[in-house]
Amino acid sequence: MKTVLVTGGLGFIGSNFIRLLLKDFSDYKVINLDAVTYAGNPENLKELESDIHYHFVHGDIGNRQLIDTLLAQEKPDIIVNFAAESHVDRSISGPAAFIETNIVGTFTQLEAFRSYCSAGNRCRFLQVSTDEVYGSLGAEGYFTETTPYSPNSPYAASKASADHLVRAYHHTYKLDTLITNCSNNYGPYQFPEKLIPLMISNALEGRSLPVYGDGKNVRDWLYVEDHCRALELVMRAADPGQTYNIGGHNEMENIALVRLLCNSLDRRLGPLPDQRPRTELITFVGDRQGHDQRYAIDAEKIKHDLNWEPQTNLAKGMEMTIDWYLDNQEWLKQVRDGSYQKYYHEMYDQR
Ligand code: NAD
Ligand code: DAU
Q1: C-beta of residue 218 within 8 angstroms of C-beta of residue 256
Q2: Which of 153, 201, 281, 298 has its CA 20 to 30 A from that of 347?
Q3: What is the 27 CA–ligand 2 centroid distance (Å)?
C-alpha cells in the first residue's frame, strides 16, 4: 500500500483524483487535507466516508504544525498538492488569499516535506499546476515544458511562484519533487463559477450566459478524469525533478463552446419555456482584465515518457458532463444557494 497525502481533495480535481485512486486502484490509502473553503464541498466525496482507505482531515496547508503532525503520524509516500485558490476572476478582485494559500501554503508544505525527508523518510511531492504560468499564446504555437514562465493574472503569478519554489527545492535540497502544468479541466463536481458549469447552470435556469469580450479567447479543454490518470502516472512513475505539461488537444473559442452547450441542452430538454433556443441567453459582457487570449498544450513529453494521452474528446466529455449536471441538480442547487456549506458545518463543527 502507498499512502498519499492529498491536499485540496474536496475541490473539483482533487475529489475526482481521490475517487479514481480508491475506485480504480487497490494499492492506495488516501489522507485528504482540506480547509473547506467555498470551493471545498464534503458532498463531493460523501460516498467515501466509510472507506477504510480514506481519511479526511480538516485543516489549512499553511498550518506547519498540522502538516508536521500529519507527516509524522501518517508517513505518506507521496504528497499531491491540489490545494489552491483556483479562480482567475477572484484573483483579480482579491489577490491576497492567492498569495497566502498558493505561495505561502506551498512553501509551508515544502518546509515540512524537507524536514520529513531529512529525517530519513522517502517521499515525493507533486505540485499540481497550470498552463497559465506560461502566459498567453497568439494564433499559433503551443506551450512546452521549456516555454518561459510569463504569468499574467495574480492567480497565474501565484502558481508560477509556487512552481519555482518546488523546482528550487529539487535543485537545492535534491528532494524528489514533480510539477505538472495542465490546461482547462471540465467534468463532474466543478464549482459553477468556472465557464462550463456556470453556463450549464445558468442555461438550465433560463438566466443570461455572460461571455467575456468578443468570446474569441481559446482554451484547451481536458476531461478531468484524463487529468487525474495523468497525475497518477506521474506520481507513480516519473523521475524525480521532472515537469510535465498535460493537455487535451481540444482547443475551442469560448463562444463556440457556449453555443455547443446551449444546443446540447436544447436537444435534450427542448427549448426554453418561451420557445427560444438557449443561444438567445448569450450576453456579451465586459472583458476580464488582462484576459489571456489563447492557451494550448504540447503534451508530447508525457506521451513519450509515460505513454499518457487523453482518452475523452470534447464532444464525448461534454455530453458526459452535461449528463452529470442534469443528474445532479440537487448538488448544483445546494452549491448555488450556499446550503452545501450548512451541510459542512453540521458534519464537521460538532466533532
Ligand atoms: P478548486 O477551487 O475546485 O478546489 C480547491 C480545493 O482546495 C478546495 O477543496 C479548497 O477547500 C481547498 N483549499 C483552498 N485553500 C486551502 C488551504 N489553504 N488549505 C487546504 N485546502 C485548501 O480547484 P480545482 O479546480 O480542483 O484545482 C485544483 C488544483 O489544480 C489547483 O492547484 C489549480 O491551480 C490546479 N489546476 C486547475 C485546473 C482547472 O482547470 N480547474 C487546471 C490546471 C491546474
Ligand atoms: O488553464 C488552466 C486554468 O483554467 C486553471 O489553472 C484555473 O484554475 C481554471 O479556473 C481555468 O482558468 P480560466 O480562467 O481559463 O477558466 P474559466 O472557466 O474561469 O474561464 C474560461 C474562459 O471563459 C476564459 O477565457 C474566460 C471565459 N469566461 C469565464 C467565465 C467564468 C467567460 O467568458 N464568461 C464567464 O462567465
Answers
A1: no
A2: 201
A3: 35
